[in-house]
Write a structure and sequence with these properties.
Number of domains: 1
Distance between the termini: 28 Å
Radius of gyration: 19 Å
Number of strands: 0
Number of helices: 12
Length: 273
């Protein structure tokens, strides 16, 4: 992969990772446009790591609070003292993220068997982008405020985690699906967005770990294209994340649906003809 291609794909990843239009779907289309037909899962995961850096920046205070709560909990367990999970909101959030990560990991491992098909099929991308559009449009009926919302719990965390697992399929937006799923489960839009982005942390880190193991087994390494692509993805992702948070809070999340429908239809049309 040439550096200019990596930079272009990095920008594409950064802009679409947090906007609910499927970054993986756009990456596949971008790779097909450049004629990149071989599996580039390692590059895809690396640019996802770039956008993950944006999550750490925007939600640094929440992440720090959860790490502190988990550390304090571990200390109490080591000293044989009781742990009151229900009284610590940061500890509960951390445990909900861990719970949601379980179905994500299970579905991710299952779908990984089909990565060579999923990441090279424009037909699949087009169809799944239309599915994403439908999910986004449906979410407009589920906007809630904190006053009429339901709190996050283990059951809802598992359901949202499962929806994140489906987002391994190119064309299914991770952010769009998990935020919409959170609202479907009764969460207010602020909590749904926050949980969605924090839930992406273990998922992307886990995928990156698998990728690193693959590097060692295949003798692959990190090249300049991957570095440039990841850096650009971080910068553009930081901008896109802040924009999407404002859009979700404003109750305009569903307005991305027509874009997904149009792009999905055009991709299907180009594939057929």
């Amino acid at each position: 992969m040439e550096i200019y291609q990596a930079v272009t794909l990095g920008i594409l990843q950064g802009l679409t990772e947090f906007l609910p239009v499927s970054s993986s779907g756009h990456l596949v289309l971008g790779q097909l446009f450049f004629g990149i037909t071989e599996s580039v899962l390692a590059f895809d995961i690396s640019v996802h790591m770039g956008t993950l850096g944006a999550v750490f920046v925007v939600y640094s205070s929440d992440i720090s609070a959860m790490v502190g709560a988990l550390s304090a909990c571990a200390g109490r367990i080591v000293r044989g003292r009781p742990v009151a999970v229900g009284s610590d909101e940061n500890l509960k959030l951390a445990l909900f993220i861990l719970a949601g990560s379980v179905p994500t990991a299970m579905m991710g491992m299952f779908l990984k068997k089909f990565e060579h098909i999923m990441f090279t099929s424009s037909l699949l991308v087009g169809a799944m982008m239309m599915v994403t559009g439908t999910i986004l449009w449906t979410s407009r009926k589920f906007y809630r405020t904190e006053k009429n919302s339901i709190g996050l719990d283990v059951k809802r965390s598992l359901v949202i985690g499962a929806s994140q697992g489906l987002a391994v399929i190119p064309g299914i937006s991770r952010a769009g699906t998990t935020i919409a799923c959170g609202m479907f489960c009764g969460l207010d839009r602020h909590t749904a967005a926050k949980f969605s982005f924090l839930l992406s942390i273990p998922a992307i880190l886990g995928a990156q770990l698998v990728s690193i193991i693959g590097y060692r087994e295949q003798g692959s390494g990190i090249d300049a294209a991957m570095i440039y692509g990841t850096l650009v993805a971080f910068i553009t992702g930081l901008i896109a994340l802040k924009v999407l948070i404002k859009i979700v809070h404003a109750g305009k999340f569903h307005l991305f649906a027509p874009y997904c429908w149009v792009v999905g239809f055009l991709v299907l049309l180009s594939t057929i003809y």
